[in-house]
Amino acid sequence: MNNLLTRLLTKAVWLKIHLYLALLVGFLFALIGLSGSLNVYRDEIDTFLNPELSIAAPQNKYQSLDKIIASVRAAHPDRYDSWTLEMPRSPHGMMTAWYEKPTETFFEYYAPLMISVNPYTGEIVSSRFWGQTVMTWIVDLHTQLRLDQLGSNTVGVLGLLLVVSCSSGLYLWWPSLKEILNSLKIRSNGGLKLLLLDVHRLLGLLSAGPLIVLAITGTLLSFPSSLEFFTGSTGMEHGQTGRDIVSTAIPNNHPTGLSSATFVAQSVFPKAELRRITTPLGDTGIYRINFRQTSEINQKHPFTTVWVDRWSGQIREVRNPNSFSSGETFATWIWPIHTGEALGPKGRFIWFLSGISLFILYVSGLLRWLFRTNRINDRQAETAIKQALNNGQKVLYRTFSLISRHLLETSQRLTPYVKKGYAAALVWLKHLYLKFQSRHKRLGKDD
Fold this sequence. Notes:
By secondary structure, this protein is of the alpha+beta class. The protein folds into four domains: 11-41 and 138-233 and 345-372; 51-132, Roll (Nuclear Transport Factor 2, Chain: A), CATH 3.10.450; 234-323, no CATH class; 379-447. It is 57% helix and 10% strand. It contains twelve helices and eight strands. Strands 4-3-2-1-5-6-7-8 form an eight-stranded antiparallel β-sheet, covered by helices on one side. The protein is globular, with a radius of gyration of 30 Å.
């Protein structure tokens, strides 16, 4: 038994494990890493690609929730299921109305309708389906490789394999105390082969910790039942809303509106920030109103929830994260840690770099293996890279020249108009000066 363990713990064995993992699933690691980096700034990129989603001149007060939901329903009269209104996270942001199962995408894995509403005017700005925009497509690529439930399970397994890959890489790098400084050096004069090896080792050392955290949290998100089993919790899956509460009141002609239900719910958490309101479905449906308390680490998907009966206007259920067990509290941390929102702007940027590093580690490791197996020549590769850099410089130079020429031509065409404007401005200033001088003389005479 001891001999078997000794053989398994040799660096030669772990080198093969590290190599085979990279060759077999390294590309998927790189793909998930790059898409994850983009997802860190998903909202910002989506707004950049769709400028109409940003409100240039915010007003002082939102329209009432009842008017906003009426506007949404008027635009989509044939959608009878419940709607969820998600509040903007900044004065310039849109309110989003979510419809979970539209008929157009009913049989797809996850493709709700997303309606962006100007909260100040109630105007519907855009209607989009999840998976049919650039960023939601990338989110699906990151979370389930665009393969639905099979892809989600695959991503979870890849997370475990990434932990093994990072751990084996650290074990292979680990030097003696005397060699630790040398192991951190990058040899730039030893050829491309040594340079790639040093970059791969140093980058792997710097990113191993964040990547292991991302891999573990990503696996738990892919297998939420496992997370609930380990934490002894229920209804803590990302996106879950807790228990299904139904109305027991008698339907009447005076149902409680969204604004009134929100007012009632806010009385339980007066200092909390309103995040979502889900409308009732059918006669037994009930309002589900989601808040975020300052003590919650979740920014986008907090867990504070109040259920308000539509017919009686009374509170039926309250979920307060401050009373969660330690296991439930741990479960609430998984999503914000994985997305980086729990770490602040600097932490999000580190997560962004970690995803990119996964791609660089794959490319550098693959090139290193191609060198070792003589599939490519060191000098040939170095020459090819230099040629690519030279070509890139030429492309940049041509682009810069083209832009400069275009700006020059534009400025030449505008010169006559600029001269006319300048002359008109001088005439106007002269007229203003003479008018001021005349008025000054008249005032002097009056005195």
